[in-house]
Write a structure and sequence with these properties.
Elements: E1 3-7, E2 10-13, E3 18-25, E4 33-39, E5 46-52, E6 58-60, E7 68-73, E8 78-83, E9 92-99, H1 106-110, E10 118-119, E11 123-128
Parallel strand pairs: 2-11
Antiparallel strand pairs: 1-3, 3-8, 4-5, 4-9, 5-6, 7-8, 9-10, 9-11
């Protein structure tokens, strides 16, 4: 079974930092895009950032460019999201996601243009002002 276990969420003041982790299992890391979507209660989920497990290429939403960094440890099937300069509008549940590429471009997958193959349960990030 595929599992995506996210951790590292919490409460932080505006301007602070957090690092999220996603431990993945049940699929071949190199064949997938892995990333983070987020959603506030009652709102549509949006793609934040994704990374290609095969070549490490990345995509970032404009709202997080320069503040967030995604990285992967392929040996341990783990993806990290380092978040700096957090803002109250970053408050959301952050979901680790994985998609089997299927010839699609990373950016299109990460923008949510297609249904994603797998979703984790999410971890809550709350940024206070």
């Amino acid at each position: 079974d595929v599992q995506l276990q996210a951790s590292g969420g919490g409460l932080v003041q505006a301007g602070g930092s957090l690092r999220l982790s996603c431990a993945a299992s049940g699929f071949t890391f190199d064949d997938y895009f892995i990333g983070w979507f987020r959603g506030a209660p009652g709102e549509e989920r949006e793609g934040v950032t994704c990374i290609s497990g095969s070549d490490g290429s990345t995509y970032y939403a404009d709202s997080v460019k320069g503040r967030f960094t995604i990285s992967s440890d392929n040996a341990n099937n783990t993806v990290y999201l380092q978040m700096h300069s957090l803002k109250p509008e970053d408050t959301a549940v952050y979901y680790c996601v994985a998609d089997g590429r299927g010839g699609r471009a990373l950016a299109n997958v990460c923008r949510g243009n297609y249904g994603l193959d797998y979703w984790g349960k999410g971890t809550l990030v709350t940024v206070s002002s």
